[in-house]
Amino acid sequence: LGSSAGFSIDWRLKRALGESDSMLSALHGMTVIPRLDDPLFSWESQVTIQRRKTDILDFSEPEGARVVTVAGKAVHSWQRIEDGIRVLLNEPVMGKTLIRFDGILTGETAGEAESRSKIYTVGPPGLISAYSNSGYLAICSTRPERLEIKPSAGAVEVALSEGTFPSVGPEDKRCFSYTDEDIRVELTTSEEPRSFESRAAGLVRVLEGGVSLDAIYQVDVTHGSEYRFSLSLPSPWKIVHLEALARGKGSPKRNLSW
Hints:
This protein is mainly beta. It is built from no helices and 15 strands.
C-alpha cells in the first residue's frame, strides 16, 4: 500500500450456479395412474422464461412421486439436487420450453392380504423461483380396482376438456385444477371384493388300459373379477389336458394356461 493513508475495495458477489435474473412461470400438467401394482405418473411443464435467458431450471418433485426420466427438445441432462430436480438445457433460452417428466408413485400399503389397498398422497410439481406455478392434475381410473379420491381445499374439479395434461393411461379420468402449490389429493386404491360359484360334473371310464376321469367345471364370478383359479384333485388323479369351452354358439374361445 506504500504510504497511502487509506484504500477502498470494490467487490461483487459471484453468481452461484442455478441463480438467475430470469423471470419464470410454469403451467404444469400431471397424469397419475394410482393402481395397486406399477403405479405411474407423467408430468409436462410448459415453462415461460422472460427478461433474461437461462440454461438451468430447478423443479420441486411432486409429493408422493419420484422422477425416473426427464426429456424435451431443449433438455441436455438432469440431476438430483437437495431441493428437487435440476434440468440443464442445451443452451440459454428465452420464451417457452416444454419439459416432460415420467416416474413412479410412492404409496403406503394398507389392508389385509385378502384385500390389498394402497394410499397415495399426491401434491403438485413446481418450478423453483417462479412467480407463478399453476396447472392440472388428472387422475386415471384403476378399474377393476376401486379408487377413492379426496382432494384438499384449493383443488377444483374441472371438465377434462378444460385441462392440459399428458394423454397416458385409461381414458376414464377426473381432472383438478390448482393455483396453490400446497394442495394435496389423497388416493386410496383397493381390490374389489371377489366371489364366485362353481359346479362340476364328472364321468369315470374304467377300461382295460386304465381308468380315466372326464370332468367339466363351470365357474360363475358373481362379484369382482378373477383371472386365475386353484383346483385340487384327490390322489392319484393327475391333469393331462385342460381347455376352455365356449359358453354358446358364436362365443369366443378363451385360452388357458396351467
